[in-house]
Amino acid sequence: KYSVKELLNQGKFLLNKKVLVEGWIRSFRYSIFITLNDGSTIQNLQIILSTNKLDKIIMKKITIGSSIRVIGIVKKSIGKKQYIELQSLDITIYELVNPKILQKSILQPKRHSFEKLREQAHLRFQTNIFSCIMRIRHHIAFCIHKYFHEHGFFYLHTPIITTSNCEGTGKMFQITTMDLKKNQLIDYTKDFFKCKTYLSVSGQLEAETASLGLGKVYTFGPVFRAENSNTSRHLSEFWMIEPEIAFYHLEENINLAEKFLKFIIRYIVENNMEDLIFLNQCLEKWKKKKKNYLLEKLELILKFPFKKISYTETIKILDQEEKKKNIKFSHPIMWGMDLQSEHEQYLVDKYFKKIPVIIFDYPCSIKAFYMRMNNDGKTVRAMDVLFPEIGEIIGGSQREERYDMLLQRMKDTNIDINKLWWYLDTRRFGSVPHSGFGLGFDRLVQFITGMNNIRDVIPFPRTPNNAEF
Ligand code: 4AD
Ligand code: MG
């Protein structure tokens, strides 16, 4: 039994051998050809049927999307496209798709909008475009683990159920227990945990405690944001990678982020060319992108060092650009403001011509409580990595490791110390300078695959008004 990918890769060594393959019919023509896909690769396997009676009956019945099993002999292909094809000996049909149902579904072979694909999210995996994105998504996840493993990081599982709000976000998803028989919510004081619990917005605080013993750790898991951000870059449930490293200063953290992102992109360019080429063909046809749009964009990331500028310099640049009348922002530029996506986009896409930018030393007033205060008393050792098209892809910082300073910051920002006592306590048991960051996994997949909407790179997107499937 072989997958289509195995058959096409090992074809030369399997000539005239009898093999079994299973998949879904992508097309059929001239009453003897079937192309079969099983998800293992973007390529289809060509199957040649005989002209005997049984095969003729099968050919009359089959529809696109139907699932079959084929036993056949591997033959050298006469066509130029592929080296081998399969001469069928025996075909079993698992299920025939009713042509009427097919017509209304996204499996009907024609161009469907991404919105339409999303409406049938459960069938998206059978489309070429989405299976491509899912394979790339897998490879990105895989090489992230590979990078950390090869660099001495330990994979840490942080809890999804928490009592704390790491990022100080305005809203969180609260966990409640429901008595399903009585159809009644149970009061949290009598509930399972006897305290208010939420879905975690970040595993950072727990990762910090682990790094202060294991040295280098990383998390890779789902996090939850209840912000009502209905944009093409926000999900309510997304995947985040958070490395945390003891004895790391901000500069080392910045360098790690750059090396890490370049490693991932190089890995995908080297290992996923087939899928990238297919995606590019789709983007050319549907979005009028250039022939080498994806590859050129990815190679630009690899080619140059990322730009590194402080927040204060950033404000100066944006202010000067406005004065020179190169751009007019809808949010006025002033020191202390949070950078909006219009500023980020202008900076990366226009000013730095699509080379990623790392901005550091942000005002403490717009960043989370745990970031290390600079000597100026105004800025913290924060860093954001901005990517072309996407904007912020990484947020990170050097952490405040000094007990008194951290305590003061927690008080100033109204953090409940009774709840986070354990976090503060780590600053009394061999505290050290340490740093880390969070990479938005889905945003990275979005960048690499060139999708406009983050909903099109995650299997089951969770966004405001959408959690059905
Ligand atoms: O900037 P954020 O909120 O940083 C943290 O959570 C830190 N605790 C990370 C750390 O230092 N360990 O989120 C990090 C990244 C963002 O840069 C962005 O790429 C992504 O997570 N992100 C989202 N992705 C999709 N949908 C959302 N709603 C996102 N919010 C943040
Ligand atoms: Mg951020």
Q: What's the architecture of the largest domain, going by CATH?
A: 2-Layer Sandwich
What is the CATH topology assignment of the largest domain?
BirA Bifunctional Protein, domain 2
The span between the termini is 33 Å
Work out the helicity level. Answer: 25-40%
Strand order of the largest sheet: 6-12-13-18-17-16-15-14
Bound molecules: 4-amino-1,4-dioxobutan-2-aminium adenosine-5'-monophosphate, magnesium ion
Spell out the CATH superfamily of the largest domain: Bira Bifunctional Protein, Domain 2
User: In terms of structural class, how would the helical and strand content be classed?
Assistant: alpha+beta
Strand content: 15-25%
Under CATH at level 1, the class of the largest domain stands as Alpha Beta
Mean pLDDT metric: 95
Total count of helical runs of at least 4 residues: 14
User: Poorly predicted ranges (pLDDT <50, ≥5 residues)?
Assistant: none
Number of domains: 2
Radius of gyration: 26 Å
Principal-axes shape call: globular
Main sheet summary? 8 strands, mixed
* Number of beta strands: 18
Enzyme class: ligase
Keywords: Aminoacyl-tRNA synthetase, ATP-binding, Cytoplasm, Ligase, Nucleotide-binding, Protein biosynthesis
Protein name: Asparagine--tRNA ligase
EC number: 6.1.1.22
